[in-house]
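Re: the 381-residue chain
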Amino acid sequence: MNHSIKKLVAGAALVLGAFAVQAAEPIRIGSVLSVTGPAAFLGDPELKTLQMYVDDINKKGGVIGRPLQLVHYDDGSDAGKANGFTKRLIDDDKVDILIGGTTTGATMSSAPLVEKAGIPFISLAGAVVIIEPVKKWIFKTPHTDRMAAEKVFEDMKKRGLTNVALFTETSGFGGSGKKEAEGVAGKYGINLVANETYGPKDTDMSPQLTKIKNTAGVQAVFVIGLGQGPAIVTKNYKQLGITLPLYHAHGVASDEFIKLSGPAAEGVRLPAAALLVADKLAANDAQKPVVTAYTKAYQEKWKSDVSTFGGHAYDGLMLAVDAIKRAGSTDKAKVRDALEATKGYIGTGGVVNMSATDHMGLDLSAFRMLEIKGGDWTLAQ
């Protein structure tokens, strides 16, 4: 066979292969995300990430010889709407697996439907309540609020800060974070000497911060919230001239937080995934190739900065794809079992080792303690 005919045959085989994938029944991935509303800076990069990688995987021939089809809805940051959309994805769209639940509230409002239908669900939200107690069909990619509290308290203890003011949002994430922080404080020798809350839609947190400022003995402040609230807290903190060390949870781990807070963010510390400091990781860091590749692909495609939230969606999709490949089908029970058996997956959030008792699979080493310096993320010293 001469060279040009070989090339023609090879080309025809590629085209036929692509047609075969297109003709095959798609693997339907359902997603409910908060693309608009107060949690949009979490949900928007999540959707963009899923769209980008579904396209990329399909160009490479799909999964188990079938194309991926993303079916997504925007809950507008309203947990109640998430329930209705999840029902639609299960009953009408007949999806094979669910990736989403931008917020803890949205995830928990969908959880009973997911468990009843028996469909694998990978949540992109933070609270520990999502996976504790273990729910048969529910997994998650982000680090938990309990881990965030432990990482923060560990850092405070190292710096000799033991009298702490807790300032939490009255949202699903904030409420769970408050409970978890209160639960682990003693383990690290931390005394919570002040305990204040704010609403997710509040526009001025000065009254609560003034109370904290006037509390005797406070050495540091720990804020747990997401969306724009924590940025307002940070600005008010600066305006009131409070100079105590300020810590946040991982619900603000995106460049958007630095933009919203402006110079007031200087010196803020928080635990976050390695993704935010991809270029600052050691050359032999196991996560470096993954987070560097994701950062490059996302920035080139969307012309915007990466966030850990987009990273959670990347991990959710890749864990799903990996489980479907190992299951060799989209049989829901087989995919669920494969997810639970995930070992050594290196993602943007850390190294994932799941089990029957752990549907997240990350330990404290998956968190890096970061400090904002010169308007950028740095590894805290």
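The longest strand covers residues 191-198.
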